[in-house]
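Reply to dn_fold:

You asked what the input looked like. This is it:
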Amino acid sequence: MQELVTNGYLFIAQPPLYRIQQGKQSFWTYSDKEKDAKLKELKSGKVEVQRYKGLGEMSPQQLWDTTMNPASRTLLQVELEDAMEADRIFHVLMGSEVPPRKSFIQAHAKNVRNLDI
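and this is what came back:
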């Protein structure tokens, strides 16, 4: 399937990280920066913030509205900068050995940009 990536045909639909609810209004944000900006904007009244860790936490309608609807979804193109390094990291993270995975996560946790992808 490498040709899908190298030819630019592979995309990931990015789900939101937060749902911010104020009264009957809901807002979806895709980063901590967006969430903070929206919270500053919504100064008055009760505001609820829900953090999403995975798509399984959303209702089917929420998943459609935020992630699957072609009119409103955010797509990220998958690019393969270094195939051998990507393969190595894939095996560290998805392999059966726990210690290398734990070490990798601890070493790179502070540099994560898109944790939920």
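Helices lie at 2-6, 32-41, 60-68, 83-94, 98-108.
Hope that clears it up.
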